[in-house]
Amino acid sequence: MLLDPGGNGGKQQQQPDVEVLALCINLAANARCAQLICEGAGLKFLMKRAFKNKDAMLMKMIRNISMHDGPTKALFIVRHLLLCITIA
User: Fold this and answer.
1) Is the dihedral of CA 11, 28, 40, 73 positive or negative?
2) At what angle do helices 42-53 and 56-66 cross, to 10 degrees?
3) Do 65 and 43 meet the contact criterion of CB atoms below 8 Å apart?
4) pLDDT tens, position by position, 13-56
5) Residue 8: which pLDDT band, with cuts at 50, 70 and 90?
6) Shortest CA distance to 44 belongs to which of 82, 17, 18?
7) Is the dihedral of CA 23, 28, 31, 34 positive or negative?
8) Is the Cβ–Cβ distance between 47 and 79 less than 8 Å?
9) Mean confidence (pLDDT) of the chain
């Protein structure tokens, strides 16, 4: 579905339905749901897909995830530091 990075056998990813994205955006507003979305490489996959496709709805979802304190905030800080290191 939305967070399935390898389920299409290397074919181009289709855009998810607007209703599914809207639900995910609202789920990301909940701290526990945001934590579950970020498990494993979930956040990395979302960020990569959002910027690759220039998808505003995925970016809204990432923004909602970033609003929570705790483990999800730490993932954003680590990701930002890694980005700074690779640029330098």
Assistant:
1) positive
2) 140
3) yes
4) 677 789 999 999 999 999 999 999 988 888 888 888 988 989 99
5) low
6) 82
7) positive
8) yes
9) 81
